[in-house]
């Protein structure tokens, strides 16, 4: 499952979506909005994306994972819009017969998502200033 959403990510449903009787391991990654970016206070983040391309790139990442590791299922969900501190911005779940493959595949998924998926974030400061993170990133 691949989804971009403006709704909160249900981490229990994310995990349940990949559980399978043939898989003894489920690894999840939850990216959450933290209150500090570098030395600056963050009150919220805003995420924007180009959905058709973002979804296509996420599907490509899942195919990369399937070609490298023996896995059961993969789910990747990313929030869009304004997220307050503590909210889940991205959720990834991977199931596999064995934990090493599940951990490796999940780590690969988040690293590749950050590298190639056209999702951008804006850091909102207490002053109201908005700072784009990685504005020079070209996809």
Protein described:
The protein has one domain (2-32, 51-118): Aldehyde Oxidoreductase, domain 3 (Alpha-Beta Complex). It is 32% helix and 37% strand. It has 3 helices and 10 strands. It has helices at 11-18, 51-68, 99-116; strands at residues 2-5, 25-32, 36-37, 40-41, 44-49, 74-79, 81-84, 88-96, 119-124, 130-133. α2 runs antiparallel to α3 (99-116). The longest helix has 18 residues, at 51-68. The radius of gyration is 16 Å and the shape is elongated. The two termini are 22 Å apart.
List keywords for this structure.
alpha+beta, 3 helices, Aldehyde Oxidoreductase, domain 3, 139 residues
| Poorly predicted tracts of residues | none
Shape estimate: elongated
- Report how far apart the termini are: 22 Å
Largest sheet: 4 strands, mixed
What is the average of the pLDDT values? Answer: 92
Number of helix segments? 3
The largest beta-sheet arranges its strands as: 1-6-8-2
**Which value, in Å, is the CA radius of gyration?**
16 Å
Report the portion of residues in β strands: 35-45%
Give the CATH H-level superfamily.
Molybdopterin biosynthesis MoaE subunit
H-E order: EHEEEEHEEEHEE
Name of the CATH class: Alpha Beta
Summarize the amount of helix as a percent range: 25-40%
| CATH topology description | Aldehyde Oxidoreductase, domain 3
* Count of individual beta strands: 10
What class, by secondary structure content? alpha+beta
Number of domains: 1
């Amino acid at each position: 499952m691949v989804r971009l959403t403006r709704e909160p990510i249900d981490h229990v449903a994310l995990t349940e979506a990949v559980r399978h009787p043939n898989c003894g391991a489920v690894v999840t990654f939850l990216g959450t909005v933290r209150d500090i970016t570098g030395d600056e206070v963050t009150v919220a983040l805003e995420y924007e994306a180009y959905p058709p391309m973002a979804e296509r790139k996420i599907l490509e990442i899942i195919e990369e994972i399937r070609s490298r590791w023996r896995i059961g299922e993969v789910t990747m969900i990313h929030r869009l819009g304004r997220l307050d501190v503590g909210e889940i911005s991205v959720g990834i779940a991977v199931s596999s017969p064995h934990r090493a493959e599940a951990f490796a595949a999940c780590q690969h998924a988040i690293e590749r998502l950050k590298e190639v998926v056209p999702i951008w974030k804006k850091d909102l400061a207490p002053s109201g200033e908005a700072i784009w993170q990685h504005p020079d990133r070209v996809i």
